[in-house]
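Per your request, structure below.
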């Protein structure tokens, strides 16, 4: 019976780095697909811009109003009301979009939307 080969720490580190890179590429591919199949059609249908970063995401109307995932209920995209403590108004057709965007990516503890890119639909006139 032969002796098992020694495994160097550098080899382990390289294998783990490769595995993490492959995992991140898979997450990015899924985020890109959700962006193309869910977010962009939603934005185009309702003429909304999509912005993400800094650990969150929002949809913006041309008048500057925003839609975001309600902190208490990530399954809804809500229209912001003047009262910051209100729960807002549910946006029709937004439940699936919100659920897809708010899917948690482990072990990063981030929403899938954070892996997406900003999007502005054709003809969208952003307020200055």
């Amino acid at each position: 019976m032969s002796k098992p080969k020694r495994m160097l720490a550098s080899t382990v580190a390289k294998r783990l780095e490769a595995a993490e890179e492959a995992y991140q590429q898979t997450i990015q591919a899924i985020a890109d697909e959700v962006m193309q199949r869910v977010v962009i059609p939603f934005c185009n249908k309702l003429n909304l811009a999509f912005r993400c970063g800094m650990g969150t995401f929002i949809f913006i109307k041309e008048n500057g109003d925003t839609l975001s995932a309600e902190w208490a209920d990530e399954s809804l995209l809500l229209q912001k009301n003047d009262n910051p403590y209100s729960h807002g108004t549910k946006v029709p057709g937004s439940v699936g979009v919100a659920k897809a965007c708010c899917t948690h990516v482990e072990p990063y503890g981030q929403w899938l939307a954070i892996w997406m890119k900003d999007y502005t639909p054709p003809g969208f006139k952003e307020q200055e």
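The first strand starts at residue 49 and ends at 53.

Regards,
D.
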